[in-house]
Amino acid sequence: MRVSHEQLEVRTNGKGTYEITDKVQEKVDNSKMKNGVVTVFVQHTSCSLTTMENAAPAARRDVERFLEKLVPENADYEHDDEGPDDMPSHIRMVLTRTSETIPIVDGKMQIGTWQGIFLFEHRRAQHRRRVHITIMGE
Amino acid sequence: MRVSHEQLEVRTNGKGTYEITDKVQEKVDNSKMKNGVVTVFVQHTSCSLTTMENAAPAARRDVERFLEKLVPENADYEHDDEGPDDMPSHIRMVLTRTSETIPIVDGKMQIGTWQGIFLFEHRRAQHRRRVHITIMGE
Amino acid sequence: MRVSHEQLEVRTNGKGTYEITDKVQEKVDNSKMKNGVVTVFVQHTSCSLTTMENAAPAARRDVERFLEKLVPENADYEHDDEGPDDMPSHIRMVLTRTSETIPIVDGKMQIGTWQGIFLFEHRRAQHRRRVHITIMGE
Predict the structure, then answer these.
(1) Cβ neighbour number for residue C14 with a 10 Å cutoff
(2) Which strands, in side-by-side order, build the sheet including B16-19?
(3) Cβ atoms < 10 Å from Cβ of B18
(4) pLDDT confidence of C42, banded at 50, 70, 90?
(5) Which chains have at least 3 CB atom pairs separated by less than 8 Å from chain B?
(6) Subunit contact C62:A1, Cβ cutoff 8 A
(7) Is the entire prediction scored with pTM above 0.95?
């Protein structure tokens, strides 16, 4: 058994979901690990890392619209010095996830047919998001 | 240290919470692993996998009713070709969880007295849900 | 590769966020593990364990106020025998998280600059919360 660490930079261009499934699988391939788990961890508090429906972009747009309405920009937030999209981004992160741990068998991530791994950006501006990938196994 | 993979099929019969704590512990028992962690990962995007209060069914019914109201079936979703319960199921999955990682000591999962592991079904129809269980340790 | 288990008791004094980042890092230090992951798991269903913005207390107060409004105490819950703050606490736990798994490199948790690990207490009364910490690696 061993541990392999990888870094992924995801450039985001405004609010939305950015699929990184293939890039994470590539890191698993590089590690030559055949059997274990991979933990995908985003090192920020204003975006999320989560599995989502990967076949229908409309489904992801519905998720985005739902969160836009549930956690609106123009509520009366105490913390508002970084713009109207800042505080909602922290709340959306708490309501979703920061990491996923996914099984690996025969070198392949064991996600379901319709599952993808997504960086969910909650800020309007462009960002470079750091995703840490840890592969443990053999 | 080693890795052990197991599969669990959970048959669901409509929306609701289905406890799988004992079945997961059984898989840990089978693995003979005494010390490590178990990752329980559901391979779908229209149901969730999460810990919950396991003693009071009324508490879980309240959770279900809350999510039914928070993410209603009859909102104006763009993605609606698989029925009114489809899009809410994807949103509920994003708002809850897809996996839990639980410590194992002396062969037993270290969950709290009132914690159980639940498959949280968000669809109305019957489904066979695949849960992947990865045990890592010694 | 090996596994190291640690326990942390967090005394809470009413609803709010309690940072435990340094205490978790201390446990990682004690384990002498340089390379792997740490899983921080709270053994309760009426509080949460989650990463959050750690620099601005106002941002955390906004998160707390948002959840107070989203999951109010005085809704018509079926499960209400343990007081008005009991059922909302279970719902908030389901909407947030029970554990985080964080990479370790060179003995240090690889969290982002603004990320902290928090025990998020949802009950009014004082509690002693048990957090199980599992470090796996080498």
Answers:
(1) 12
(2) B16-19, B115-121, B47-53
(3) 16
(4) very high
(5) A, C
(6) no
(7) yes
